[in-house]
């Protein structure tokens, strides 16, 4: 049996795992974990076989990020994000003109920044912005990169006075971040991928942060009515419910 055939079977298996899990596991959260674990192992095997390696690598990177997002144990969560960051850097090194590596590096670095102190978070934010913008430059239809830039804008605006001063030193001047830009980026993400629950939830949260409570609540309510098509949808819907 050829290695390419085995890899194709494994990647195909990863695609059907969520449906199989949905039939045998009642909890949405548990279904997501089952699906991610199976997908992660399948993509890792494909990468190890070095067949269709680029696609398997970026899908493994995505699976690691999703697994970290859904993991409640802090050390295990950080480990998944570290693994995804390392893999994203390898993807960029081997294929620098592909948007996926830059996108998932931006996401992984942003996730890891949650484990850091204030100044290190700001330093990480500079790389997050640069990698997300590079992903868009390489693929203007990359909806998740607009999502990342939306969050970057919102989080920069929400920095306290001292961290804003540190950001000025790091960037040379405080970057042109705003809640208006955050909304524009997240609306673009929704426009490009209207079925993605996380885009609409983060747009709703950003509108709330801007004081636009009616529109923000409308977006969160709309997210709750959307079908669940991805493993993290239940996670984001729980956030929406908490903020309604």
Please tell me the overall pLDDT: 85
The percent range for strand residues is: under 5%
The CATH level-2 architecture of one domain is identified as: Alpha Horseshoe
CATH fold name of one domain, please? Serine Threonine Protein Phosphatase 5, Tetratricopeptide repeat
Characterize the quaternary organization of these chains: single chain
Going by CATH, the homologous superfamily of one domain would be Tetratricopeptide repeat domain
The helix count comes to: 12
Helices and strands: which structural class? mainly alpha
Q: Which geometry do the CA atoms define?
A: globular
Order of helices and strands: HHHHHHHHHHHH
How many DSSP E strands? 0
Keywords, please?
globular, 12 helices, 0% strand, Serine Threonine Protein Phosphatase 5, Tetratricopeptide repeat
Which helices and strands occur, and which strands form pairs?
Layout: H1 3-24, H2 28-49, H3 53-70, H4 74-94, H5 99-113, H6 118-138, H7 143-157, H8 161-171, H9 179-192, H10 197-209, H11 213-225, H12 233-243
Helix pairs in contact: 1-2, 2-3, 3-4, 3-5, 4-5, 5-6, 6-7, 6-8, 7-9, 7-10, 9-10, 10-11, 10-12, 11-12
Brief overview, please?
With 244 residues, the protein is mainly alpha-helical. The protein has helices at 3-24, 28-49, 53-70, 74-94, 99-113, 118-138, 143-157, 161-171, 179-192, 197-209, 213-225, 233-243.
